[in-house]
């Protein structure tokens, strides 16, 4: 007979009642179904299908709540706690949160998931039978993925980062498309498990997509022009920058390229909002 293992679903008989719950058995091993897990309609004469896990004392316990995430079964789980010395804890829908070990997380803490992020996980046990979260491999993600088509080009998407590489980030979108964000198509690297919003800039032959987190050209222009105009307003309607300012000064002040700065300045001038004179820019009265 197979021994009882955390992270699995089994059907057991009720062996006996105890002051703090019921002991269930497979005929060789017993496991506690605590009072807090026993519903009002519980029938001790019937066999019970339960999920096995370790309680807060490390003892094998049972719950009638069957999570989607099990050993060999994957689903999205939410990060509910972060401990730098251990890793991150995720909720699988039972009373005990499950640890995803720091050994399975990025080397940089700044790229670890934070509370509210989501990971695609199953469960695993270590050599001592302790239960841990197991991050999905690339093969697992490919198995659940759907193929995008050319008609999806330029659509806005939302997804969750599941794999981080030096050259970019992989994500799974709400449509189950696998996407790749090249490092040139983002302003900063997403965390593992972070929700990102972008747009499809290419659909590849295998149905995967390339994604950009950068604004579309007209959106970026609007943002840049607004940033410059707001800065001028904060300085009483003028600033010591114009279209002949050095690229270094522009980047240091506005965190944008000189080309982007000139486009935004040109737009503001064309709209009649500002004018330039002797190395300065002024808001028109």
Explain what the structure shows.
Residues 74-134 form the Conserved virulence factor B second S1 domain. Residues 7-64 form the Conserved virulence factor B first S1 domain. Residues 142-213 form the Conserved virulence factor B third S1 domain. This is S1 motif domain-containing protein. Residues 226-280 form the Conserved virulence factor B-like winged helix domain. There is one protein chain. The termini are far apart. It is elongated and about 90 Å long. The protein has helices at 138-144, 217-234, 247-254, 258-270, and strands at residues 9-18, 21-25, 30-34, 48-54, 60-63, 75-83, 87-91, 98-101, 118-125, 131-135, 156-165, 168-173, 178-182, 195-203, 209-212, 238-239, 274-277, 280-283. Helix content is 16%, strand content 37%. The chain folds into four domains: 9-63, OB fold (Dihydrolipoamide Acetyltransferase, E2P) (Beta Barrel); 75-136, OB fold (Dihydrolipoamide Acetyltransferase, E2P); 145-212, OB fold (Dihydrolipoamide Acetyltransferase, E2P), CATH 2.40.50; 217-283, Orthogonal Bundle (Arc Repressor Mutant, subunit A). The mean pLDDT is 92. With 285 residues, it is of the alpha+beta class. A hairpin with a 2-residue loop joins strand 1 and strand 2. Helix 2 (217-234) packs across helix 4 (258-270).
